[in-house]
What we know:
There is one protein chain. By secondary structure, this protein is an alpha/beta fold. It contains 11 helices and 10 strands. The chain has helices spanning 3-9, 17-31, 40-54, 59-68, 74-82, 95-104, 121-134, 150-158, 171-177, 193-197, 231-241, and strands at residues 110-114, 141-147, 160-162, 178-180, 188-191, 199-203, 217-222, 245-253, 266-270, 273-276. Helix 2 runs parallel beside helix 4 (59-68) and helix 6 packs across helix 7. The protein is globular, with a radius of gyration of 21 Å. The chain starts with a helix and ends in a 19-residue tail after the last strand.
Amino acid sequence: MTDRVKSESSKEFNFNSRDFDRVRELIYKRAGISLADSKQEMVYSRLARRLRATGLTSFTEYLNKLEGDHDSQEWEAFTNALTTNLTSFFREEHHFPILAEHVKKCATPVTIWCSASSTGEEPYSIAMTLCEAFGTMRPPAQIIATDIDTNVLNTAAKGVYNADRIEKMSQERIRKFFLKGKGAQEGLVRVRQELRDLITFKQLNLLADSWPVSGEFDAIFCRNVMIYFDKPTQGKILKKFAPLMKSDALLFAGHSENFLYVTDELKLKGKTVYELANSRAASRPSVSHLHKGSL
């Protein structure tokens, strides 16, 4: 018996290549995520928890139930389970001084969209940058932070983190922007209310036909999420970003993402920072940033 057969036979649930292919097809259609061949073990581990939670005994049964009810609440849990949420405060730190200088030149109120907010570290880093740029805890700004994963959005909205998440941050920032837990909350920190007031958290699927946000934005952060999409999906999303950007707006990408060969709507301004290739400010109507009643 080979090691692979031994490994598969020891698993709680049978999970074969046919099951994996079905999962790949479903998550691609639902969220635009392209799962590599190497992700089979990760998919098994994460979805096995859903089988236990739902009381099902096979992946075939679980996937049949999903496909049989496109409005099932389990779709949300399925998508959450397969979404990767690696993030940190001031990740890819070179972007934030660029943002600070940019917003000083913008008309107020400044509006920023963080399109893959995960557990909140990125939008809170943006908020801290705005506070420092304007020299106040209540800068003239609005941040919209979205993600497809409802679990991470709940964490983000609470703004509570283990203290080790901010240990690399300067003591000045920690004192200014966080409250340290005491007693039963020892070892935890909470983002100050002023930062939380700057941010509106909202679920959004970048693959959806319509988004509950509308421009114009001074900056859009879409970092380390496009790597999970294939080129046609990337192009579709970037094409929808462009009309939501002011003529001088910036689009921040992740360190391993390159949009130059995906769309002609954008041009490179700096390291993983893009701007519109052509200004369309004169032709754009003025519209709100968050649809009424969408919260």
